[in-house]
Amino acid sequence: ATGELNYQCADLYEKGLVRNLVGGFVASQVATHYMLLNAHDENGERGCIILIASVAANKHALMGAGIEYSSAKAGVLGLTKEIARICGSAGIRCNTILPGSIFTPMTDPENPKNAQSKEYLSIMGNAYANVTLFPPKKPKYGLPENIASMALEIMRNWFVNCAIIPVDGGFIGL
């Protein structure tokens, strides 16, 4: 029952945190520096930061995600709230999108560069197996365009701040 925790290498855990959490923090620091140079627009806004986490932040066991990935993506949720709190009065918003399983070259089982993709899609297929929120002919995996369109809507809507928004076909709500 505790195998993954007991055998997790601290070095790999730290690398996962750096890649999936610290990267968003550093990018946000750089972005806010430049956003503060902007004049306020008609809504009092200077910019909008959109971080990308994962439904694995809340549903890690079902996603087949490792402990380092789930931990880091959960950390992005806290990071979002803190950036929104710290930067809101300066006219900078911060929100996070929680993608579900998205079909990309990394998850494409036909991509020879990714030996893990077939296993990943199998895990995701099992996780989504009982999800009945999808019409019969719709795929159970999202597309990058689904995430991009949500990001665009967040940028357009000045009233969305400190939001954690799942884009996962309803998976996180189950």
Summarize the structure.
With 174 residues, the chain is mainly α. The protein has helices at residues 3-7, 10-35, 56-63, 67-87, 117-128, 144-156, and strands at 47-52, 92-99, 164-167.
Q: Report the order of strands and helices.
A: HHEHHEHHE
Strand order of the largest sheet: 1-2-3
C-alpha geometry: globular
The helix content, as a percent range, equals: 40-55%
User: Could you list the spans in which at least 5 consecutive residues all have pLDDT below 50?
Assistant: none
Sheet with the most strands, sense and barrel status:
3 strands, parallel
> What is the C-alpha radius of gyration, as a whole number of Å?
18 Å
Report the count of strand segments: 3
Strand composition percent: 5-15%
Structural class: mainly alpha
Average pLDDT works out at: 83
Notable features of this structure?
3-stranded parallel β-sheet; single chain; mainly alpha; 174 residues; 10% strand; 6 helices
Please tell me about this protein's structure:
By secondary structure, this protein is mainly α. The protein has helices at residues 3-7, 10-35, 56-63, 67-87, 117-128, 144-156; strands spanning 47-52, 92-99, 164-167. 49% of the residues lie in helices and 10% in strands. Strands 1-2-3 form a 3-stranded parallel sheet, with helices on both faces.
Task: Draw up the topology in text.
Elements: H1 3-7, H2 10-35, E1 47-52, H3 56-63, H4 67-87, E2 92-99, H5 117-128, H6 144-156, E3 164-167
Parallel strand pairs: 1-2, 2-3
Helix pairs in contact: 2-4, 3-4
